[in-house]
Amino acid sequence: MIMTTKLPVKTFKLRPYKKVGLILSIIINLVLAFFFFRLGMGLEKVAGRFLCFIIVLASLAVTAFFVVGYIYLRKENFIGFFISSEGFNDISTGHRYGIVEWEDVVKIRIIDDLDHPGKKYISLKIKNPQEYIAREQIMHKRRSLELKLHYYGSPICFSNRGLDCSFEELEETIRLYYNNYLERKEERENRDSKIDC
Fold first, then answer.
1. Distance between CA 178 and CA 84 in Å, rounded?
2. What are phi and psi of 83, to 5 degrees?
């Protein structure tokens, strides 16, 4: 009997505008910091200088956030989506729920995006949605996952918007890898049941 083999790891890169957007955000925030620094140095009132100082600090903090994001994405070679026979990891949405394992997936659905008519999401119904929501460390992003669970029935919703591929290609890949997992799981169960007999 021929066993189904695991599929190789496949990746999708981020769209070029994501990289350009990060670089532009860094430049704009540095320009803002420089502008308010110069403005503050020219003011005589302490209150005005203090306000400019706060804006400079905020701009530098935001710049640091974008620089860290750029370094992280560059280290990952600007890959926004990894998929394997075990599961996938989508970092194009900015959520950090980690690897979604195929064994947790119950159903794949294609749903319309409520905020953007004509756009679609791939929504994966999973056994343990609260576990994935709890993995997100940032509070407002965790709330976003909770809202997705409420509106779409799953916190695991994603599209090709940030990825350099078509929606159809992403959907086809998800279905291919999930079906590969299901076939291998069924073969394992059949083999185990024959051993038990």
1. 9
2. -140, 140
